[in-house]
Specification:
The chain is α/β, with parallel strands linked by helices. The protein contains nine helices and ten strands. The chain has a single domain, classed as P-loop containing nucleotide triphosphate hydrolases (Rossmann fold, 3-Layer(aba) Sandwich), CATH 3.40.50. The strands form two sheets. Strands 6-7-8-3-9-10 form a six-stranded mixed sheet, sandwiched between helices. It has a four-stranded antiparallel sheet with strand order 2-1-4-5, covered by helices on one side. Helix 6 links the parallel strand 7 and strand 8. Helix 3 packs across helix 4 and helix 3 runs parallel beside helix 5. The N and C termini lie far apart (38 Å).
């Protein structure tokens, strides 16, 4: 269970990015967060893993309160897929990127080796294990970034624009991967067709607030509601 109560956050210049949001997400649910640029979507999900800390209000992941003293626990519970995979891959060899998280948990070398190999094989990246991440294709980078999260086996996976720069084949591959994960999943995306395919529930954000919240198919098929929030229907519904 993720519980957000009265969350507010402002930038140093006084601009309010999050304006008193209260939201609950059930364990195992799949929630899409959509909205126009600047609506506050990324700022909201970056609070879940403690990248930003609440200025007002509270966030709890299960029985763990998001706070400075609990960041280690939060980072083990929440896996965040960054919008740009280059921000997530930083070593000279793909294998080392995937091993980085388990190494920081203090696992034995044999355990790390088993985990890394299993994760890379699951995502069809094993043959690329010795390749520098900078030399991977954009699609390979996206799945490599995903591998760096899955190897940690988090309870919650947060994805920020996960289909950015993916070709149709890799986009379909990602849809299948996401739908096969039995975890709590939160997706921030402008790709409303991806949200349609992977989320059960959708929240619309505008100016730091939740302006709509409901079943994904109901929200994403409501042309008037989407247009009122500077969004368009998913491509599959446009005529």
């Amino acid at each position: 269970m993720i519980s957000i109560e009265g969350l507010s956050f402002s930038w140093p210049d006084g601009i309010k990015a999050i304006d008193h949001i209260t939201l609950a997400m059930a364990e195992g649910s799949s929630v899409g967060i959509v909205g126009a640029n600047g609506a506050g979507k990324s700022t909201l999900v970056n609070h879940l893993n403690g990248y930003y800390l609440p200025q007002k209000g509270t966030i709890s992941i299960g029985d763990i309160r998001v706070s400075k003293k609990n960041l280690d626990q939060i980072h083990r519970t929440i896996g965040l897929l960054f919008q740009n995979p280059d921000d997530q891959l930083f070593t000279a060899r793909l294998y080392d990127d995937i091993a980085f998280g388990p190494e920081n948990l203090g696992l034995k070398t044999s355990e790390i080796t088993t985990l890394v190999e299993a994760t890379l094989r699951e995502l069809n990246l094993w043959e690329l294990r010795n390749k520098p991440p900078a030399h991977l294709s954009q699609g390979q980078k996206r799945f490599a970034a995903f591998a760096s999260i899955l190897v940690m086996n988090p309870d919650v996976i947060v994805m920020d624009e996960p289909t950015a720069d993916l070709d149709p084949k890799n986009r379909r591959k990602l849809i299948n991967l996401v739908n096969g994960l039995r975890k709590t999943k939160i997706t921030v995306s402008h790709d409303l067709d991806f949200v349609w395919d992977t989320c059960e529930r959708v929240c619309i954000m505008q100016k730091g607030r939740i302006t709509a919240d409901g079943p994904a198919r109901d929200i994403l098929s409501n042309r008037a509601l989407l247009e009122a929030n500077s969004l368009e229907l998913p491509l599959r519904l446009q005529r």
